[in-house]
């Protein structure tokens, strides 16, 4: 229905961003809300409208390829929009595609909500169908804003929204507290550590 919306990011929350276009604020769920920044600059966000029963969700992506991978993932039985967003949020979509090609179930079950059965289904449904998505699926980010004391807390909230448990996050929080970064950088580092520890 909507291919993309051009506007300004006016709000960033752990679960969504608000994109204002012609005095309308569109609530967009995204893989990593903190990849976006509140700014006066106009940006283009590619969208996917997900309709289920009485729920209509508008999901935003920084690139067409990112959206294409999302749309492939939600065709797999057992993976809904939330699960697909959690997989995309790790920042390494090429590794996901390569794991599917290698039939690496151990790698795939590291994501929230992905058990052995779902990992096997991902391989069965998507193996050989992701070649055209290889490459840089994420647009380069603008210069990050200065990190604040709230940055780590925001990152933890966003990771909880993606389905990671408090127990999993507590294991990496001490390591993250030793560094001073932006929320987005904390998200990327946290996801790297979570994948490594699984």
TrEMBL record:
Function field: The RuvA-RuvB-RuvC complex processes Holliday junction (HJ) DNA during genetic recombination and DNA repair, while the RuvA-RuvB complex plays an important role in the rescue of blocked DNA replication forks via replication fork reversal (RFR). RuvA specifically binds to HJ cruciform DNA, conferring on it an open structure. The RuvB hexamer acts as an ATP-dependent pump, pulling dsDNA into and through the RuvAB complex. HJ branch migration allows RuvC to scan DNA until it finds its consensus sequence, where it cleaves and resolves the cruciform DNA.
Location of this chain's protein in the cell: Cytoplasm
Protein name stated in the entry: Holliday junction branch migration complex subunit RuvA
Gene Ontology MF terms in the entry: ATP binding; four-way junction DNA binding; four-way junction helicase activity; hydrolase activity
Provenance organism: Savagea serpentis
UniProt keyword annotation of Transcription present: no
Domain notes: Has three domains with a flexible linker between the domains II and III and assumes an 'L' shape. Domain III is highly mobile and contacts RuvB.
Annotated GO CC locations: cytoplasm; Holliday junction helicase complex; Holliday junction resolvase complex
Subunit structure: Homotetramer. Forms an RuvA(8)-RuvB(12)-Holliday junction (HJ) complex. HJ DNA is sandwiched between 2 RuvA tetramers; dsDNA enters through RuvA and exits via RuvB. An RuvB hexamer assembles on each DNA strand where it exits the tetramer. Each RuvB hexamer is contacted by two RuvA subunits (via domain III) on 2 adjacent RuvB subunits; this complex drives branch migration. In the full resolvosome a probable DNA-RuvA(4)-RuvB(12)-RuvC(2) complex forms which resolves the HJ.
Keyword set includes Cell membrane: no
Gene Ontology terms: biological process: DNA recombination; DNA repair
Principal subcellular localization: cytoplasm
Family to which the UniProt record says this protein belongs: Belongs to the RuvA family.
Signal peptide span: none
Keywords noted in UniProt: Cytoplasm, DNA damage, DNA recombination, DNA repair, DNA-binding, Hydrolase
InterPro entries for the chain: DNA_helicase_Holl-junc_RuvA_I, Hlx-hairpin-Hlx_DNA-bd_motif, NA-bd_OB-fold, RuvA, RuvA_2-like, RuvA_C, RuvA_C_sf
Chain segments carrying region Domain III: 148-198
């Amino acid at each position: 229905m909507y291919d993309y919306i051009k506007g300004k990011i006016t709000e960033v929350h752990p679960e969504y961003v608000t994109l204002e276009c012609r005095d309308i604020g569109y609530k967009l769920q995204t893989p990593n809300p903190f990849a976006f920044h509140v700014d006066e600059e106009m940006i283009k966000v590619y969208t996917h409208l997900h309709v289920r029963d009485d729920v209509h969700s508008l999901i935003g992506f920084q690139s067409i390829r990112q959206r294409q991978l999302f749309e492939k993932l939600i065709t797999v039985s057992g993976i809904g929009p939330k699960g697909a967003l959690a997989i995309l949020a790790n920042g390494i979509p090429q590794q996901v595609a390569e794991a599917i090609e290698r039939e690496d179930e151990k790698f795939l079950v590291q994501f929230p909500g992905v058990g052995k059965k779902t990992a096997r289904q991902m391989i069965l449904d998507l193996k050989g169908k992701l070649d055209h998505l290889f490459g840089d699926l994420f647009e380069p980010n603008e210069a990050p804003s200065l990190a604040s004391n709230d940055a780590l807390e925001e990152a933890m909230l966003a990771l909880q929204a993606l389905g990671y448990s408090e127990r999993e996050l507590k294991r990496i929080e001490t390591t993250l507290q030793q560094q001073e970064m932006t929320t987005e950088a904390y998200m990327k580092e946290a996801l790297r550590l979570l994948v490594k520890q699984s």
